[in-house]
Amino acid sequence: MDKKDLRIVYLGTPEISANVLERMIEENYNIVAVVSQEDKPIGRKQIITPTPVKKVALIHNIPVFQPHKIRDDYSFLKELKPDILLTMAYGQIVPLGVLETPKIKALNLHGSLLPKYRGASPIQASLFNGDKVTGVTLMEMVEAMDAGNMFFKTECLISEDDNYDTLQLKIAEAAFVAFDEGIEKIVNENYQGEPQNLDEVSFTKKVKPEDQIINFNQKSVDVINKIRALTSEPGAYFVYKNEKIKVQKAILVDSKENAIPGKISKYDKSAFYIETQDGTLSILTLQKPGKKVMNFKDFFNGNRDFFNVGDVIWCIAYL
After folding, report:
1. In a 10 Å sphere around its CB, with 0-12 CB exposed, 13-18 middle and 19+ buried, how is residue 301 labelled?
2. Consecutive H or E run containing 17
3. Interhelix angle 15-26/164-189, nearest 10 degrees
4. CA-based torsion, 137, 142, 144, 150: positive or negative
5. What integer best gives the mean pLDDT of the chain?
6. What per-residue confidence (pLDDT) applies to 316?
7. Residues 258, 31: Cα–Cα separation, whole Å
C-alpha cells in the first residue's frame, strides 16, 4: 500500500503541530480530517481565535472537529474510517475508544527520544536540563501515557543559542521525518515496533506558573536554561518594583565566588547585569506587562531610571 493513500486523521493544536501538518500536506499525505482543541480567547482584547492547527486545516479545506472532551465525543471518527490516527501535541487524553478507531494504528509524535522525557513538556525539559541532543519518537498510542512501542526516532542537535521558539521548529521537521520514514515500515513491513526500556524511563510535568519565576539564587547556567525553555511563551520573569519583567535572552558575563544573587551590578546604556549564585548575567531582552519585547538598548532608552544599581531582585511570584 502506498503510504500517501492512507486515510489519516490528524490530532493537534499548537504551532509546532501546525508546522508538522503543513509539511504533511505539502508532501501530499491524505489528511481526511483534523481534530483540534476548541478556539480560545487570545490577547488583551480576548478575541476568539482558531488554533494554529485549525488555521492550517481551513486554508487547505480539510474538515475540522473540535470536541470539548474527546473522551465523551468521538463518534464522528468512525464515520471518517481512518487508516491512521496521528497526534502531535493535541492537548487532551485520548481514550481507548478513540485508539481502537483506526484500521491500522493510532500513532503519536512525541518530542523526545523515548523513553526519556515522557509527559507534557519534553521540549522544555531538554532545554531546562541543558541537553545537547533531543529528537522525536514515532510511537504507538496506548492507554498509559507515552508508553507504547517505538517505531522510528529522529535526532536533532540543540545549540547554545536555541530556545523553545527555535527548537520547536527543529522538532517539527524531525517529527515529519520520523512519521515519513516510520509509516513506511509500519504499512509495508508490518513492523510492530520496539518496546521501551522501563529502566530508562523519565517523566516531565506540565509547566506551571511557579516554574516561570526566575530565581537568581541558582547557578547561571540554570537561570539561562530556564529562560531558554520558556521563550517566548509562557515566558520566564522576575518581579521588580511590583512589575512582572519577562526575559527572553540572557548570557553569562563572568563567573565569581562572591556573587550576591539577584544584585543589579550594572545598569547604563552599555549593559544590564544581574548576579547569580556563581556569576553575572547580561540581560539582553526585557518585556514589561502589556508591552512588546525590547532589546536592552531600546528598553534603557525608554526606562533610564527604572532599575537601580545595588538593588537585589528576590525570587517572588507576581500576584
Report:
1. exposed
2. helix 15-26
3. 50
4. negative
5. 95
6. 83
7. 59
The sign one gets for the Cα dihedral 85, 91, 96, 97 is negative
**Cα(233)–Cα(282) distance, integer angstroms:** 21
* pLDDT number for residue 108: 98
Question: Is residue 29 within 8 Å of 4, Cβ to Cβ?
Answer: yes
What residue type is assigned to position 4 of the chain?
A: K
- Cross-strand bridge partners of residue 301: none
- Reply yes or no on whether the pLDDT at 294 is more than 80: yes
Q: For residues 7 and 86, give the distance between their C-alpha atoms in angstroms, rounded to a whole number.
A: 11
pLDDT of residue 2: 86
> What percent of the chain clears pLDDT 90, i.e. is strictly above it?
91
- Residue 45: its pLDDT value, please? 78
Q: Which residue has the higher pLDDT, 57 or 316?
A: 57
| Contact between 216 and 275 (Cβ < 8 Å) | yes
Q: Could you tell me how many residues make up the chain?
A: 319
- How far apart are the C-alpha atoms of 312 and 315, rounded to whole Å? 10
Could you give the C-alpha distances from 37 to 40, 50, 90, 162, 201, in angstroms and in order?
A: 9, 9, 7, 28, 28
Q: Is the pLDDT of residue 166 over 70?
A: yes
| Cα–Cα distances in angstroms (integers) from residue 49 to residues 40, 41, 45, 129, 168, in the given order | 6, 6, 11, 33, 21
Classify the phi-psi angles of 113: left when phi > 0, otherwise alpha if psi is within -120 to 50, otherwise beta: beta
Strand partners, 47: 42
Q: Cα separations (Å) of 158 from 19, 44, 132, 315?
A: 19, 33, 5, 28
